[in-house]
Amino acid sequence: MPPYAPTPESNKYKKQQEKLMRPRVINGKPTFIKFLPQDDLVALHPVYLTDPNDFTPRRQRNGDMLEWGIIERDEAVELNMMQTIELRRQQDSRMAKCMYHGSLVPEVQFINALMERKKAKIAAARDPQREASDYVLTVRLRNRLSDTERASCTSAVMWRRIKVSGATKLSVFQDKILAPALGWTRNYHGYLFVDDSDGTQYGADGGSHIDLMHLKDNGRTYLDDHEFTLAEILPQPDTNKPGFHYIYDLGDYWLHDIYVESILPVSESDGKVVLLAGGGACPREDGQGCHNWIKYIASLTPAKHAEIARSMNYCDDPEVRRLGSQWRFDPHTFDLAAARTRIATALASPASVPSGPKKTSIGMTNPFTHPGGDSAPKGTHRTVIPSGIGFNPFGKNSALHGAFQTEVVRDRRDTRASALCAHCGKPIAKPKMCSACRKVYYCDQDCQKTHWKEHKRQCVG
């Protein structure tokens, strides 16, 4: 579910609303959704007045199945400015009359029912053999949202081919494997996985990424991706059609297609993570999405190279630091060794804390050192890095220079349910931890011995 921290006041408000809410009778039939008395249903999509148990998801005009298959606005159809303003005016008009408690929003009530239906379907189809198998996946960044020619990787701006165990949790796959393989920054922007068969969405439980403000335009709510493994949600192999989608940064909307190339037999599966191949450089963070990125890289100027070098996912790159102002971005280049190193680093580190993502605070005074500042949950700590050292989106000569980059970082080891071997990335039901620092897991002694050369620098035992 989307991030929400209940308080005694909000719980009281929710109970007051629940007492007032009632179904509406339309054509002699009560609606599944309950409404507040003063809500006149202006701008509410007709699908929300139906029974979710009878709902059939629909595809967008370009064939995509996104946002639970509820087409409130087809992204493949561009609206002019006046049409967009009118759509927002209608939506805001209804919300201004009835400000529902988060979980009681009519659209969320409907999707909650779809989520329960999906969870029951997944539970009924669970197969231990699939979890014991390795999956070969190809992930391709969509050039345009309306791009329907999706089978070829060679025409993509960026693509990666990855072997991963079906027992890997979806949340761990995103954080420690997929984002590093692609080149995106861990725990910086929000994300969604989308099942292409019915539009089901999966995301980070408790996430507070700033771009989640756009969630109402991306399906409104989602299943907790930490509850499901890849084997439970990925379809059968099909190299001609993506079985899943990965949306990174709900504001900029980087849309990736995920193809299941093959599912290896259990006898041929070792559970280890392997980045097999790839092509194309990752776009810069905050690059305003696929369509704008294609235009941006069509003509790369020295100023653009410098802007990319300052971005969150390139500012700490060894080559950027080594070459400085002489560094040049090549959108067609892919460094396989560097991508494998990013994955190895992520595997050997604690899982990200979605409730405390990387963010920048503007101003010369650090708000996180003051009473009442943003606190970190138990078992974590908040890092504070001056912008002159880390990422600074404004540039050193900007009047807004003086920002602080912060993130909540986990102090404790990962839970056993999400444990991956720190060396090979294999999911392990009974993980063995490092006896010195007790913060990383290994699948066997061979992996621990092999990884010791790298791990001893971080081991605090």
Automatic annotation (TrEMBL):
Full protein name: MM3350-like domain-containing protein
UniProt keyword terms in alphabetical order: Metal-binding, Zinc, Zinc-finger
Listed Pfam families: PRiA4_ORF3, zf-MYND
Source organism of this protein record: Mycena belliarum
Single GO molecular function: zinc ion binding
Family matches, as SUPFAM superfamilies: HIT/MYND zinc finger-like (SSF144232), MM3350-like (SSF159941)
InterPro entries (alphabetical): MM3350-like_sf, Plasmid_pRiA4b_Orf3-like, Znf_MYND
Residue ranges constituting the MYND-type domain according to the UniProt record: 421-459
